[in-house]
Design a protein that fits this description.
single chain; alpha+beta; 3-stranded mixed beta sheet; globular
């Protein structure tokens, strides 16, 4: 995931990679039109528990990838009605993320 202590060029490359990975991963699962009202639940599995701000920040590039991949229209609060971030302890070197996007029907 992203680390606030990396050189800006290295951090930028990591952000672009996460966006690209997300876009490619969701390509076949995207809706016919991007969601305009949804809930996103992001869960991070890592060996070290991040503070709340860094936990939320660690999902920024992934959520941007959801937008790039046309899963969601935008990541504004008017579209993403609920944004939940969770953390669970995982063994070292076994980190992962899980993302759940649910449409909220009006």
């Amino acid at each position: 995931m992203e680390n606030g202590h990396k050189h800006w060029a290295i951090a930028g490359k990591a952000r672009r990679e996460w966006r690209q990975r997300t876009r490619l991963r969701v390509f076949l699962e995207r809706p016919n039109v991007p969601l305009v009202s949804c809930k996103i639940v992001c869960k991070r599995f890592s060996s070290v528990e991040p503070d709340r701000d860094n936990l939320a920040r660690s999902f920024k590039s992934i959520v941007d990838g959801l937008k790039d991949g046309k899963i969601i229209k935008d990541d504004k609060p008017s579209i993403v009605k609920e944004f939940i971030t969770l953390w669970e302890k995982a063994p070292k070197k076994n980190g992962k993320v899980e993302i759940l996007v649910e449409e909220i029907l009006k």
